[in-house]
């Protein structure tokens, strides 16, 4: 609902100022500036700029073709139709077909006034400049999503802590790891990350700066880590028997949950994980097939933990690079 209200406000403000400015400059068909402003407004600045490029190209093409046709063939409806027959395929070929409608309105002004004089052509170009310019200015005033993204960031880290602590609790207790213990938390985590990525994409399309790029990469990193958590969960389901290594792994997962902040390069955790892997390798060899399978599963979890920390470390250095340039 809020997005619809913001869009309605943008339409109203852009239309008013475009028409007001066109009237102040004593341009003919001033209302057309407001119509162009409405058509130019898009959800993001990138889309708005893209449409401005399309309509500018289509307007130059339209006024050029229409002027030649009207000058040599006369100001008649069939010539107007001929203009559309010629111009639209060319505009579509130049990927500007979506902007032909307002251009056709501008050409209709020439038809109604029975003129292709330079002042009349300039009138249409000025209406275009005013409409697109006001639309671009209004679009730059739309609210930022920085606060919402920061809140989602905190919620994602809280949910990740819940997931990791739930893994550690199951390992520490040695109970059979059932899917119901983690599936809801993982689903909620994925939804939060998707929401964050959606906001980051919208913000990046409106404001291409260091902060928006940071959040875009942050949510991508958390998405990759979420995928690793799913892999760990699948491995944990195969641990239906407690071993002496369970408690060490449980403590490590708790340590990870306490150091989730993206500003932490996880160097201490990486060293702890390397030591844990070394301890596992130096421990007594499995005596039964079941023990061997359990050991293999534990090593798979440790490998996934290494991936999890590597994603965190890579993001730490990439984000520092973003803010240093």
From TrEMBL:
Residue stretches spanning the membrane: 12-39, 121-141
Entry keywords, A to Z: Cell membrane, Membrane, Transmembrane, Transmembrane helix
InterPro entries: ArAE_1, ArAE_1_C, ArAE_1_C_sf, UPF0421
Any coiled-coil regions, as ranges: none
All residue ranges annotated as the Putative aromatic acid exporter C-terminal domain in the record: 147-313
Main location: membrane
Pfam families referenced in this protein's UniProt entry, alphabetically: ArAE_1 (PF06081), ArAE_1_C (PF11728)
Membrane topology: Multi-pass membrane protein
Annotated compartments: Cell membrane
One GO CC annotation: plasma membrane
Name used for this protein in its record: Aromatic acid exporter family protein
Source organism: Aerococcus sanguinicola
């Amino acid at each position: 609902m809020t997005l619809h209200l913001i869009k309605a406000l943008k339409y109203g403000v852009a239309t008013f100022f475009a028409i007001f400015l066109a009237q102040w400059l004593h341009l003919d068909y001033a209302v057309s500036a407001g119509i162009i402003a409405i058509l130019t407004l898009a959800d993001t600045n990138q889309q708005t700029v893209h449409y401005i490029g399309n309509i500018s190209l289509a307007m130059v093409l339209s006024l050029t073709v229409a002027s030649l046709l009207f000058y040599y063939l006369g100001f008649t409806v069939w010539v107007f139709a001929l203009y559309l027959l010629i111009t639209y395929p060319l505009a579509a070929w130049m990927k500007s077909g979506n902007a032909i409608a307002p251009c056709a309105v501008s050409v209709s002004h020439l038809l109604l006034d029975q003129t292709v004089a330079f002042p009349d052509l300039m009138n249409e170009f000025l209406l275009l400049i005013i409409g697109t310019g006001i639309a671009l200015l209004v679009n730059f005033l739309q609210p930022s999503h920085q606060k919402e993204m920061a809140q989602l960031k905190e919620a994602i880290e809280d949910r990740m802590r819940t997931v990791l602590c739930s893994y550690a609790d199951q390992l520490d207790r040695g109970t059979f790891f059932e899917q119901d213990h983690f599936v809801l938390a993982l689903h909620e985590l994925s939804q939060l990350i998707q929401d964050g990525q959606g906001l980051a994409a919208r913000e990046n399309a409106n404001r291409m700066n260091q902060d928006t790029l940071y959040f875009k990469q942050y949510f991508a990193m958390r998405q990759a880590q979420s995928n690793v958590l799913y892999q760990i969960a699948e491995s944990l389901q195969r641990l239906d028997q407690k071993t002496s290594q369970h408690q060490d792994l449980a403590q490590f997962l708790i340590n990870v949950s306490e150091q989730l902040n993206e500003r932490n390069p996880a160097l201490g955790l990486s060293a702890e994980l390397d030591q844990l892997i070394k301890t596992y390798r130096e421990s007594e060899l499995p005596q039964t097939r079941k023990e061997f399978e359990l050991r293999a599963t534990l090593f798979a979890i440790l490998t996934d933990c290494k991936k999890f920390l590597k994603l965190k470390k890579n993001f730490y250095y990439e984000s520092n690079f973003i803010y240093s340039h």
